Known about the structure:
- By secondary structure, the protein is an alpha/beta fold.
- The protein has helices spanning about 5-20, 25-35, 60-70, 140-150, and strands at about 50, 75-80, 85-90, 100, 105, 115, 120, 125, 130-135, 155-160, 180-185, 185-190.
- It has a single domain (about 5-190), classed as Rossmann fold.
- The chain has an 8-stranded mixed beta sheet, sandwiched between helices.
- Belongs to the 5-formyltetrahydrofolate cyclo-ligase family.
Amino acid sequence: MTAKELKAAIRNERLALRDAMTPQARLEAGQAMTGHAGERILFAPGAVISGFWPIRSEADIRPLMAQLRARGARLCLPVVLDRETIVFRAWEPDAPVVKTGFGTTGPGPEAAVLEPDILLVPLSAFDRAGNRIGYGAGHYDRAIDRLKAKGRTPKLIGIAFDCQEVASVPAEPHDVPLDAILTESGLRTVQQVS
């Protein structure tokens, strides 16, 4: 089995476990995430943090984003422009949102495009080493590459439920590891091995 095939199998398995969580369990887990990370995610005043509007059975991190905003963060949401590209548009809690592609919701084209200092990254599976499996389209990998090409090194915090953890993710050369992982059990910093 190739790494791509193995990732697809792991993705399907872990998303099925996430989908099997009750809405109440997902709500409680999202609240726990806010409690664990709201004060522990460190950033300078005015830092740009990209969150996301939940789709399917993802954790709802909007309360966490509100807490980060109250601490001085500028917020943005990812917007899918086409099959290859996402950008991060400025978002205020009272601003309208629209359907933006790939099942996502975000600010419309009138919102400013920002370059995040911290990305809260949705995912389908992760391991303790910070390797992640996304949804298979590579949007975040390409966005991170574009930010790095501009000399930016955003902090990457994976957002998932405990049930999405696996023993090992088959990392490929293009994969970018996470700096931290937030689940309902807490915020874990990943120690990168060079």
